[in-house]
């Protein structure tokens, strides 16, 4: 099962992906991290992406997909979390098609290296447990994809951002409302009393970013919703409550595997 985490910047989906990945012992992939990693390692995809970005162009859906697929293709029979992907309808379609293809098959949408890095053996166990009676390989699953939308009001996000503060010494992040230092104005980590808060214009910049992101992500959310593949969680709650919400969805979708 592929769990796609969707939501606006600051909604906490990245942190939840990390938390759930550790809790459940499954892989979580951040598209942004993969991109940075490939560029840093100067792989052939990394170099291609870097060249496109340096020319000031958008990285194509196919190229982004190739990069993601390179990393996720061998996890097809396992539960995985995708964070920050797909970001466009084109990417969502590629992901959807891939999720329906047979395990171990070359995926037509994936070019180059991806198709050669398959690991068809050893990962079917989970599927057998989840789906008794069905063959682990050659399985075509219509419902192997689910998007979890981290629903949160823009006003709450904005407030979170405004109350965020950082230790000037060690960089530890606090939120004066939801996660203040244990002793007022003293960093828990290093004991420093100097904090950096955001510039006054941060709210305006963040508002714009939020607006842009919502416009961009709307069609992707609609894509999953139209297929009955969208679940929503209330991301305005505290971290552990949100974890519980997501966990209950994941557990239900994996037929109680968690
Ligand atoms: Zn500190």
- The number of distinct structural domains comes to 2
Instruction: Walk across the major sheet and give the strand order.
Output: 2-3-1-4-8
Q: Residue ranges: pLDDT <50 for 5 or more in a row?
A: 108-141
In CATH, the homologous superfamily of the largest domain goes by the name: P-loop containing nucleotide triphosphate hydrolases
- CATH architectural designation of the largest domain: 3-Layer(aba) Sandwich
Order of helices and strands: EHEHHHEHHHEHEEEHEH
The small molecules bound here are: zinc ion
Characterize the biggest β-sheet.
Answer: 5 strands, parallel
Put simply, the count of helices is 10
Shape: globular
What labels would you give this structure?
10 helices; binds zinc ion; Rossmann fold; three-stranded antiparallel β-sheet; 258 residues; 45% helix; 2 domains; alpha/beta
């Amino acid at each position: 099962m592929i769990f796609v985490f969707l939501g606006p910047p600051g909604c906490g989906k990245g942190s939840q992906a990390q938390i759930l990945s550790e809790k459940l012992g499954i892989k979580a992939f951040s598209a942004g991290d993969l991109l940075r990693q490939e560029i840093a390692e100067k792989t052939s995809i990394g170099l291609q992406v870097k060249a496109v970005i340096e020319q000031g162009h958008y990285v194509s859906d196919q190229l982004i997909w190739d990069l993601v697929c390179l990393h996720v293709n061998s996890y097809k029979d396992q539960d995985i979390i995708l964070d920050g992907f797909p970001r466009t309808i084109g990417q969502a379609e590629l992901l959807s098609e891939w999720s329906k293809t047979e395990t171990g098959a070359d995926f037509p949408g994936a070019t180059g290296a991806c198709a050669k890095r398959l690991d068809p053996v050893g990962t079917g166990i989970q599927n057998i447990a989840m789906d008794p009676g069905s063959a682990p390989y050659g399985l075509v699953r219509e419902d192997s994809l689910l998007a979890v939308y981290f629903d949160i009001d823009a006003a709450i996000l904005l407030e979170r951002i405004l109350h965020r503060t950082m230790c000037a010494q060690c960089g530890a992040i606090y939120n004066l409302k939801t996660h203040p230092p244990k002793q007022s104005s003293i960093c828990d980590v290093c004991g420093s009393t100097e904090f950096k808060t955001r510039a006054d214009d941060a709210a305006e910049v963040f508002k714009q970013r939020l607006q842009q992101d919502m416009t961009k992500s709307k069609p992707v959310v609609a894509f999953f919703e139209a297929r009955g593949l969208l679940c929503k969680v209330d991301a305005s709650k505290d971290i552990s409550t949100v974890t519980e919400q997501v966990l209950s969805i994941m557990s239900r979708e994996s037929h109680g595997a968690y």
